[in-house]
Specification:
By secondary structure, the chain is an alpha/beta fold. The chain has one domain (about 10-160): 3-Layer(aba) Sandwich (Rossmann fold), CATH 3.40.50. It has six helices and five strands. It has helices at about 25-30, 50-60, 90-100, 110-115, 145, 150-160, and strands at about 10-15, 40-45, 65-70, 80-85, 125-130. The chain has a five-stranded mixed β-sheet. The longest helix is centred in the middle third of the chain and has 12 residues, at about 90-100. The chain starts with 7 loop residues before the first strand and ends in a 15-residue tail after the last helix.
């Protein structure tokens, strides 16, 4: 990647070992071997909100696409893609979310609130979420979430200007 080209970051956010809630982490692992445009980087952002903020400040991406599994009361496997509203949340909300994040909580909404508050997202940041069906301890996805992998990959590749490809097979090697 040349330093002159704007960087696009595909960031996976997940809760390790919690099946469908670990979607972002496992998505990044599964698609890392695909061909991506030169200016695209993939990063596992499965850590607390303040650390994600610092990582984004270090990388300084021109565009961000965040991928995760997050419950919003839709049918399992439902894929949602939307542009993030960059309006900063109120001070008291950020204080509460930072307090939990420092304690080790990994949560999409915490990350979005903290990074928006400190203006760490570029305009046009996209969120691609999949509705989890199984939030239990373990590896692998529920059938509904596994079936959504192709739609998520297509949404992400479209956002970063990459050609569409076949959905990669599930990882079989141990974590």
């Amino acid at each position: 990647m040349t330093t002159d080209s704007p960087r696009t970051l595909i960031g996976g956010l997940g809760n390790p070992w919690l099946r469908d809630l670990d979607f972002g982490t496992q998505f990044v692992r599964r698609v890392a071997s695909l061909d991506w445009p030169e200016n695209v980087m993939l990063e596992d952002l499965s850590y607390s909100a303040h650390r994600v903020l610092h990582t984004l400040q270090d990388i300084d991406p021109h565009k961000i696409v965040l991928v995760c599994g997050f419950p919003r009361d839709d049918e399992p496997g439902t894929v949602r893609s939307y542009e993030l509203d960059l309006t900063p949340p109120p001070d008291d909300e950020v204080h509460e979310r930072l307090t939990e994040a420092v304690g080790g909580i990994i949560d999409l909404d915490h990350t979005l609130a903290v990074v928006r508050y400190f203006k760490g997202f570029p305009k046009g940041t996209i969120i691609v979420e999949v509705e989890p069906g199984d939030e239990s301890f373990g590896l692998g996805f529920s059938e509904a979430v596994e079936a959504s992998m192709g739609a998520v990959l297509d949404a992400v590749r479209t956002e970063v200007g990459a050609p569409l490809v076949a959905t990669p097979a599930p990882l079989t090697e141990p974590l």
